[in-house]
Design brief:
The chain is built from 14 helices and 13 strands. By secondary structure, the protein is α/β, with parallel strands linked by helices. The radius of gyration is 21 Å and the shape is globular.
Length: about 400
């Protein structure tokens, strides 16, 4: 089988890129022929890779998008060449991951795929495909995506623009994304599937395949801490990741050590309590060691399509506490507690309960990931889907 996989990046430190590579590794190992197409970052040695456009194309696309709220509608020349590469490769399946990221013209690509009727698997890592602008909207309490995004007040959310043309973008996406005869949408959580049911994509068949991780890399090493260490991890601590929660927690519980990994601003770090430690960006391969040094992992985010850091922590046997919103409650099972993160008393009670029952929570967390969120289980589900739709 010939599979053509498309994503913004190939970088394994990026969750969609890592997921794409994990699925494709499994496909290659069983004898499939896989080509990767990407728009940004570096290629990977010993793999069949195609770079879509150049870094100048990306910068130009990003600039025009900021001026005219038109992310996904530029890179015409780069996309024309991508289509030529698709014609040359002649895939049995095209597997799409993220199309946003300023590297491809989604209209040109999707209209061509519609015409040639190649089976498509589209894994939705966020909600950008069915809104007029945003990749995430829950933290803004916005439901305009259900009715055409008529009056968007959030053009400064990613993908940033100085103006809003959300209603126009919604119509363009709807025209390009509808009408495909053999397109299967993959939601990475039941929560995301519930959102799709209210979107213009609701007519397509949708399947939930949870993301998976390398459970050998993320495994327990039983580090004992004399002090309670609470960990928070994000690639960038943007507003919806809710760093303010950890500041409040640190102030109300000075006997806890709070460790924050990920990119923060100077303003966020200023005046933080003395029991908060900011590590900055931590390399992906170093994350298991960091998880294992923590007592409890807390995901304070206002919105998660899935929650990769949560299952990484659980895979290391670290109990988790997550915010009771979006996809987070469905992945915890018995590996932790689900609370209203804005209720600091409820969070405090959850921490104390987890600490009293830590051994059981740790064992359940690890078992949960091994049974439900392993890389192998995820890849097996995708390969089975490939076989099904390529018949």
């Amino acid at each position: 089988m010939k599979i053509f996989a498309i994503n913004t990046v190939l970088d394994k430190t990026n969750a969609p890129g890592r997921i794409m590579m994990s699925i494709s590794d499994a496909a290659i190992n069983r004898g499939d022929n896989v080509m990767f197409a990407f728009g940004r970052g570096d290629t990977i040695p010993n793999f069949d890779c195609y770079r879509i456009g150049s870094i100048l194309d990306v910068y130009g696309h990003a600039l025009m998008s900021r001026i005219d709220d038109s992310a996904g509608f530029h890179s015409t020349k780069a996309t024309t060449k991508l289509i030529e590469k698709l014609e040359e490769f002649s895939p049995d399946i095209v597997h799409i991951h993220n199309l946003h990221g300023y590297y491809v013209n989604v209209v040109l690509l999707m209209e061509w795929l519609k015409k040639v009727k190649i089976p498509i698997v589209w894994t939705l890592h966020d909600c950008w495909p069915f809104t007029g602008h945003c990749a995430r909207y829950i933290h803004n309490n916005c439901e305009q995506w259900k009715v055409g995004c008529p009056n968007c007040d959030y053009s400064f959310d990613y993908p940033i623009s100085i103006v809003s043309h959300s209603a126009r973008n919604y119509r363009i996406k709807m025209s390009a994304f509808l009408g495909h005869e053999n397109l299967k949408l993959i939601a990475v959580s039941k929560w995301q599937q519930s959102q799709l049911a209210h979107s213009f994509l609701k007519g397509y068949e949708t399947q939930v395949i949870h993301n998976g991780i390398d459970t050998t890399l993320f495994s327990p090493n039983n580090v004992e801490n004399a002090q309670t260490v609470i960990l928070g991890v994000a690639s960038r601590w943007i507003d919806l990741k809710n760093l303010e929660f950890f500041t409040t927690l640190a102030k109300s519980h000075p006997h806890y050590k709070i460790i924050i990994a990920g990119e923060t601003t100077l303003r966020q770090r200023l005046n933080s309590p003395s029991n908060m430690q900011f590590l900055g960006v931590v390399k992906y391969d170093s994350l298991p060691q960091l998880y294992n040094r923590s007592t409890i992992y807390i995901n304070s985010s206002r919105e998660e399509t899935f929650g990769m850091t949560t299952i990484e922590a659980m895979s290391c046997g670290v109990p988790v506490i997550v915010n009771a919103t979006t996809a987070m409650p469905e992945i915890v099972n018995r590996g932790g507690e689900v609370v209203d993160i804005d209720n600091i008393d409820a969070v405090s009670s959850a921490i104390e309960f987890v600490l009293k029952n830590k051994s059981q929570f740790s064992a359940d967390a690890r078992e949960n990931v091994l049974n439900n969120f392993s890389e192998a289980k995820m890849a097996e589900s995708y390969l089975s889907l490939y076989d099904q739709i390529s018949r």
